[in-house]
Structure formats: structure tokens, C-alpha cells
Design goal:
The structure is a homodimer. Chain A is α+β, with helices and mostly antiparallel strands. Chain A has 9 helices and 5 strands; from the N terminus they run H-H-E-H-H-E-H-E-H-E-H-H-E-H. In chain A, helix 1 packs across helix 5, helix 2 runs antiparallel to helix 5 and helix 3 packs antiparallel against helix 6. The radius of gyration of chain A is 20 Å and the shape is globular. The relative contact order of chain A is 0.19. The mean pLDDT of chain A is 95. The interface between A and B is large, with 129 and 129 residues.
Chain lengths: 240, 240
């Protein structure tokens, strides 16, 4: 930041608070292995759900619901659905990728003290939601913003979140008795953790590397390199 | 927070940093009217894009690209596309809703010093992305998490973001020369602002009210009230 703030920066958060936002973003992890059994206090869970509820939504639609799952039977059924899909997914890979896939820990459904299903109701707000006429999927986009709010608030509280996507959405809906029009967007494992890893699990496991940001940014139209930002990208530091 | 942290809370961010995360979440707005002409410094824009790039992504797919748009001609073309869709959308409403819709300021495409298109490449990472076998749309879900990271980092920096969804995605793709398989997920207006409003524009305009969080949360299965959290929800305060 410049020493004398520009007019526009007058509404920036104070230094420590701004650092917190970047820390939550950079130190957030998709947690599968480090869950502790400690229960999450109701007041903390309420803060996380309230953070999710304050996400942006198309036409202020707020299409989300949150199913907080403590029940062990429900969770065991979800884990069975995960195991079935895992077998199906493994068959898509050739060796040695298949063995590498099967060796990865990809969920903490029974380890985490609670699970959370986040859904999207496409019918909420009636047939003509403001801002949704051109791109109907903006309801799901809004729901994903709510999930990311939850995830970052959780990181701020020292709570880990792991998103289990290796499960058929229709199976989730059957187990959780979710009605037909509703979309089961995410199934999350949530709990305090022994530690947050410095890097994503899949990067550390050698599954896939982080892409170069500079190569993902274009100028004015697709495919034109944004050379103006190269120096600024190169100067980024401190981000894990 | 309890005075003596529980084991699990050992990884919570310090108080000020945690407050920053919640402030960014609760004081973030979808900005249409308050943009200042000040250019965003390259280093600040690089931090925001890097925040987006550190979103979670299915199988560490990182399916996003970012088109930074300064060009006035490109932006004028996008605004024309917005205006066409706005007319089409207005026709969906009866009076007095139609007039109310047309009176709303719904974009800052030419007011903001820069625009940003965020896209999703469903082909990135090959045909079998880990964790995407059951729910192919998880690529777009990841991209939305990146958008929310960008939005919250921007709020921390005092930078406003407005998501323009009243535009046909195919028109955006034509204007920005985005190739066929790529999905144009979001078109954002970005800039410093004169102020952040206390409440969402659509709430203040009487278009739609904020829903009760308690009514959106279920226990174990769809439709079962989560009564256990009611007291904690009622005790939430300070959130605008």
C-alpha cells in the first residue's frame, strides 16, 4: 500500500484486518485427514452459517439451505455412496494413476464432528428473479459464493472444511430426503483440525501442480497476454 | 470465543484478523453506483487475482481464466448487450414491478475503471479430473469460489465489485472472443468506491428482503428444523 492512501483506498480495512482476509484465503485448505473430535460450539457454527447467508446472490434470491448433519447413520449412508463412486472413478484411470488415486484420503465424513449439505432452490423468489433472465445458473453461482464465505470464516475460526464431490448428487438427495427441484451443491466435512497444511494435498501428493497465474490472465480479449501485470505478479510474495 | 481456547481453536486467526474476515464478508456489497475513476494499482489488482487463484478447485483443476478489460470499445459493446437483455428482462414483469426494475441502476460497466470477465475451462486437466466424476459442474463451482475470493479481497482493499448477470453469456463470448468450450461465468465491474452501502441495494429499494437464517437451516435431513441453533442465531449481532 502507498504511504498516503489515495482517496479510493479510504474504505480499505485496517492493516491487521486486511491481513486476516488474505490469510484466510491463502491458508484455507480442503481438509480430509486432520479433523479433531472437538464439537463446534453452537455460537461458532451460527457465525459460519451467517457468513454463508451473507454471500452475494442474484436478485437477492438467497437460494441456499443448509442441512447440518450430526446423525451417524445418515453420514454412514453418505460414506457408502462415496465409496461406490470412488470405485467407479478409479476405473477411469490407468495405472499408475489408479493406484495413486486409491491411495489418497479424499473425505472425512465420519472423522469430522459434523457434516453440512448446502443446497440451491431454483424456484426461490418466483419465476423471474432479477438478474437471472440470461443465465439461469446464477442461482447455483450464488450458492457457491455462500460456500466460499463459509469456508473462509471457518478458516478464520481455526475450523477445517473438506468438500466431498465424489458422490452422486441424486444419492445425496435420496439419503437427505431433498425434494426434486432442489440442487444438492456441496457436501462438506467440518471440524477443528490438528493443523492446516502449507500446501494443497493434491499438490503435495504430486497429483497436479499450481498453474502460473500470469498465464491465466488475459487483456481485453481471450488469449491476449496481460503483460502490464507481469511485474506485479512476479513481486507477489508471502502467499503460500 | 471462550477465554481459554479449546485445543481445536489453536489455529484460529488472531482477533483482529478474524474480525477482518467477518467484516469483508458482511460489508461486501454488489456495487453499481459508487465507482470512483481512480485507477487500481497493478500491485493491488495482482493481489486480488492471486486471491482468486487460491480458491479451492475440484482435483486442483484451477479451471479459471481472467480477462482484464480496460478497452472502452469492448466495454461499450458489453454495455449494449446488457441494455438489450435489460429490455428483454423488463418485459417479464408486470407493473408496477416493471417500472421499479427499470429504475434500478444495475451495472457500472463504463463507470468502473476496469471490468473483469471470469471464465471456466471444462477441458482443463484432461478428461478425468479427480473429484469431478459424479458432478461435472464442480468446475464452475470452483470458479465461483474464485470469484468470491476476489470479491472479499477487493472489499478488504476498499475496492468495490459489481456482478453484471443481465447479459447473455453467448454475447459476452462473442465480444471477448472466448472459444467454444469455455464458459463465461461472471462479468465484474471493479473499482474504488465513494462508499459501501450498509445494506444490499435490492433490500434498500424494497425489491426483496433478507430471509431468516434460522428458517434456512435443517437438521440431519431436509425440512427438519434445526432447533438446537436457534438461540445462537438469535444471539448473532453486529452483522449488518
Amino acid at each position: 500500500m502507498s504511504v498516503v492512501p489515495k482517496t479510493g483506498e479510504a474504505h480499505a480495512l485496517p492493516t491487521e484486518e486486511r491481513r486476516g482476509v488474505y490469510r484466510a484465503i491463502h491458508e484455507r485448505r480442503d481438509v480430509r485427514s486432520q479433523f479433531l473430535p472437538d464439537q463446534i460450539p453452537d455460537v461458532a457454527l451460527a457465525r459460519l452459517l451467517n457468513a454463508a447467508h451473507h454471500a452475494p446472490s442474484v436478485g437477492f434470491m438467497q437460494p441456499w439451505n443448509f442441512i447440518v448433519i450430526h446423525d451417524r447413520g445418515v453420514r454412514a449412508a453418505v460414506r457408502d455412496a462415496f465409496l461406490r463412486e470412488r470405485v467407479r472413478a478409479a476405473a477411469l484411470y490407468d495405472e499408475p494413476r489408479r493406484s495413486q488415486f486409491l491411495a489418497l484420503k479424499l473425505e472425512g465424513i465420519l472423522d469430522a464432528p459434523l457434516n453440512l449439505c448446502v443446497t440451491c432452490d431454483p424456484t426461490r423468489g418466483g419465476p423471474h428473479v432479477l438478474g437471472r433472465s440470461a443465465i439461469p445458473d446464477t442461482d447455483v453461482y450464488s450458492t457457491c459464493c455462500a460456500i466460499q464465505n463459509f469456508w473462509l470464516a471457518a478458516r478464520a475460526e481455526g475450523i477445517g472444511v473438506g468438500w466431498v464431490s465424489i458422490v452422486q448428487a441424486e444419492e445425496l438427495k435420496r439419503i437427505l430426503e431433498i425434494p426434486a427441484p432442489i440442487i444438492a451443491v456441496a457436501y462438506l466435512c467440518v471440524g477443528y483440525v490438528s493443523h492446516f497444511s502449507d500446501t494443497p494435498d493434491l499438490e503435495r501428493a504430486g497429483w497436479r501442480r499450481r498453474l502460473s497465474l500470469a498465464e491465466l490472465v488475459f487483456a481485453d480479449r481471450w488469449g491476449r497476454p496481460e503483460t502490464k501485470l507481469r511485474a506485479a505478479f512476479a513481486a507477489l510474495s508471502g502467499a503460500p
